[in-house]
């Protein structure tokens, strides 16, 4: 198969020929036809497989025959997780579209926003952006999406890992419903598929490599070593093997800075690249590394998917990543486009769990090789076999929510009935000598005693004689207001039955009644054994 058979126009074919390519890669051969047909596409491909051209070439073909973009409008939007990846995609768009009258632009954070706003005034056919800066430009009315035709998410899984999910959802709400959506990701995790449900419609799924696999031409091996001796071992590997271009990964920004200084002190030209560096410093370091002016580029995982370095021969993991998938993306910087490469990891004993997770993910045991003079004092345990992949935990089924609060109310009612039943049984067990009929009990008092616990008129009286005269709670309250505070306390007027109905309420004197009317609860007193207060 060649590019002519894919249905691309002559200007794009000329640009491909200028770049030195003659045969499409597997991901390009599978992704380009459905994109040209206008279908939504979900493509799974590792880095270095030519996936950027897999969506750039058909995108240019689709936009080449349409009308130009209006001022402050974009016809196609490509979202990327990092500045480096945005710059890489923007360069591919310019390279393959050099013979087409299309405008493109790249926007990301870390640089001044005003020049980007000025560049968008005339409108762009293809806008490559990071999510945060794109929202900033939209909020300042620098870009609108009324004419958007195509949305592309590049490295979608990385964007989720970096916490861009909320920004992505905000951007999606700004886009027109009628559009073509393309998702390119290294893996199709459950989170990716959940996001895809809101983005793509009847997508064509394309996959050219098994999920989480590494390139076949990468030689992978590990060196057991104590953590404190890792910098010295790295210096020895670079010096003795005469590595002229090596990409070194550190887990932290501070570690990257420190490691770069140690390499410089050993006479190995080096530069760190991470999120705390300005965009100018990152661009300068990457350009010097590509040009061979520095031998070692020390990076954090933020650069793991944003660096496009052709013919990179060596990758060294000084620290293993906390997330096993990041290992695949780290070493994917080498052996790109069919070339060969080498990836070595310096592993200490406290990183055994990360090593196990990586070996389970790639389903192979990495060979070990101890370096003379760097034998570890703390031995690295042997990998266990068989290396079965870890099964993801099943998500908990959400509990059905009550409609209109009805189910919740019924549940509360049942709970209240159980409490009243328990209280009644307890009070019956305690009734006996203490439960004496009240001599001066009045019907209004029964209503008052019951008003705290039963609001449906089924008030209980303190004696059997008053059961027939028991008044509802609202009538009891009226009687209480009429009597004022002149009532005389009765002897154990509210017995055990009253306590169960009113939530263990104690008899109150006239002062307590006044306090209750003023919104203050009366002081609870325990009746004496002989029934007197």
Automatic annotation (TrEMBL):
Gene Ontology molecular functions: ATP binding; hydrolase activity; nucleic acid binding; RNA helicase activity
Keywords of this protein's UniProt record, alphabetized?
ATP-binding, Cytoplasm, Helicase, Hydrolase, Nucleotide-binding, Ribosome biogenesis
Pfam families per the UniProt record, alphabetical: DEAD, Helicase_C
Q: Give the matching SUPFAM superfamilies.
A: P-loop containing nucleoside triphosphate hydrolases
Question: By its UniProt entry, which InterPro entries does this protein fall under?
Answer: DEAD/DEAH_box_helicase_dom, DEAD/DEAH_RhlB, DEAD_box_RNA_helicase, DEAD_helicase_RhlE, Helicase_ATP-bd, Helicase_C-like, P-loop_NTPase, RNA-helicase_DEAD-box_CS
Q: Which reaction does it catalyse?
A: ATP + H2O = ADP + phosphate + H(+)
Q: Mind telling me what this protein is named?
A: ATP-dependent RNA helicase RhlE
Say which species the protein is native to: Spongiibacter pelagi
Q: What is the lineage of its organism?
A: Bacteria, Pseudomonadati, Pseudomonadota, Gammaproteobacteria, Cellvibrionales
Gene encoding this polypeptide? rhlE
């Amino acid at each position: 198969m060649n590019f002519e058979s894919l249905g691309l126009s002559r200007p794009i074919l000329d640009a491909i020929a200028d770049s030195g390519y003659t045969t499409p890669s597997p991901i390009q051969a599978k992704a380009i036809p459905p994109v040209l047909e206008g279908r939504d596409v979900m493509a799974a491909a590792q880095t270095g497989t030519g996936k950027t051209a897999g969506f750039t070439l058909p995108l240019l073909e689709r936009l080449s025959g349409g009308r130009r973009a209006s001022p402050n409008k974009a016809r196609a939007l490509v979202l990327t997780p990092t500045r480096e990846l945005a710059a890489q995609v923007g360069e591919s768009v310019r390279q393959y579209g050099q013979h087409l009258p299309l405008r493109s632009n790249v926007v990301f954070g870390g640089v001044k926003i005003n020049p980007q706003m000025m560049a968008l005034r005339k409108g762009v056919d293809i806008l490559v952006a990071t999510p945060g800066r794109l929202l900033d430009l939209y909020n300042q009315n620098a870009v609108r999406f009324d004419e958007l035709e195509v949305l592309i998410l590049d490295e979608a899984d990385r964007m989720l890992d970096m916490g861009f999910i909320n920004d992505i959802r905000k951007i999606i709400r700004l886009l027109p419903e009628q559009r073509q959506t393309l998702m390119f990701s290294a893996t199709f995790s459950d989170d990716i598929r959940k996001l895809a449900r809101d983005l793509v419609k009847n997508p064509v799924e394309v996959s050219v490599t098994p999920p989480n696999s590494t390139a076949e031409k990468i030689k992978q091996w590990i060196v057991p070593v104590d953590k404190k001796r890792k910098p010295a071992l790295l210096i020895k590997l670079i010096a003795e093997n005469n590595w002229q271009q090596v990409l070194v990964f550190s887990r932290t920004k501070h570690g990257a800075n420190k490691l770069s200084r140690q390499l410089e002190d050993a006479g190995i030209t080096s530069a760190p690249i991470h999120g705390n560096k300005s965009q100018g410093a990152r661009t300068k370091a990457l350009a010097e590394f590509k040009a061979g002016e520095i031998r070692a580029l020390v990076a954090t995982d933020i650069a793991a998917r944003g660096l496009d370095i052709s013919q990179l021969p060596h990758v060294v993991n000084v620290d293993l990543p906390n997330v096993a998938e990041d290992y695949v993306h780290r070493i994917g910087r080498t052996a790109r486009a069919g070339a060969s490469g080498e990836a070595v990891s310096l592993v200490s004993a406290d990183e055994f769990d990360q090593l196990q997770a990586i070996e389970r993910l790639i389903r192979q045991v990495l060979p070990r090789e101890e370096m003379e003079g760097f034998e570890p004092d703390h031995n690295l345990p042997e990998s266990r076999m068989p290396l079965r992949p870890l099964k993801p935990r099943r998500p908990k089924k959400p509990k059905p929510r009550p409609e209109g609060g009805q189910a919740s109310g019924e549940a509360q009612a049942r709970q209240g009935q159980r409490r009243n039943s328990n209280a009644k049984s307890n009070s019956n067990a305690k009734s006996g000598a203490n439960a004496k009929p009240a001599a001066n009990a009045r019907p209004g008092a029964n209503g008052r005693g019951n008003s705290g616990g039963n609001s449906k008129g089924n008030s209980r009286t303190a004696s059997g004689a008053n059961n027939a005269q028991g008044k509802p709670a609202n009538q009891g309250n009226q009687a209480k207001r009429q009597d004022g505070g002149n009532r005389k306390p009765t002897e154990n007027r509210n017995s055990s039955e009253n306590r169960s109905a009113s939530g263990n309420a104690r008899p109150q004197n006239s002062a307590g009644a006044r306090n209750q009317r003023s919104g203050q609860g009366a002081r609870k007193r325990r009746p004496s054994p002989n029934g007197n207060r």
